[in-house]
Amino acid sequence: MATIAADINTTRLNSDPQFTGVVTVQWPNLANLDGGSAVQLPRFADRTVQVSGTFGVGGTAVIEGSIDGVNYVTLTDPQGNALTFTADSIESIAEAVLFLRPRVTAGDGTTSLTFDLLAREGAR
Question: Alpha-carbon distance 69 to 67, whole Å?
Fold first, then answer.
């Protein structure tokens, strides 16, 4: 039940003047019941998460959000489906929250998941 630090990388998109930048965040190698440290990216309304790795037996992961940084809930995709993963996936995140984090809720000794988040500023 470790908290895995987020690796945040900010990139400016110089080739496209409509977009000022993107941020990528990675939480590598989360095991069964591990969580990622929460990140704050409120100005980035367009966010997509990719989950990949070994889920193991019963492996399940979620993307959670919070406004107060204390009470977290599972976020949804634009169709209203909970962002709960049992296989490699890429999904958009519907809710705008102040805090965002991944969490592995089930798995076994082989569970090892990497979460990659892309956050993009909209056109100005």
Answer: 6
E strand residue ranges, the chain? 3-4, 7-11, 22-30, 35-36, 46-54, 60-66, 73-74, 84-85, 89-92, 99-106, 112-120
Report residue 80: phi and psi, to 5°: 90, 5
Please provide residue 14's backbone torsions phi and psi, each rounded to the nearest 5 degrees.
-70, -25
| CA-closest candidate to residue 96, choices 122, 123, 116 | 122
Burial of 80 (0-12, 13-18, 19+ CB in 10 A): exposed
Domain chopping of the chain, boundaries:
3-111
> What tens digit of pLDDT does each residue of 62-109 get?
999 999 999 999 999 999 999 999 999 999 999 999 999 999 999 999
Residue 51 buriedness (CB in 10 A; 0-12 / 13-18 / 19+)? buried
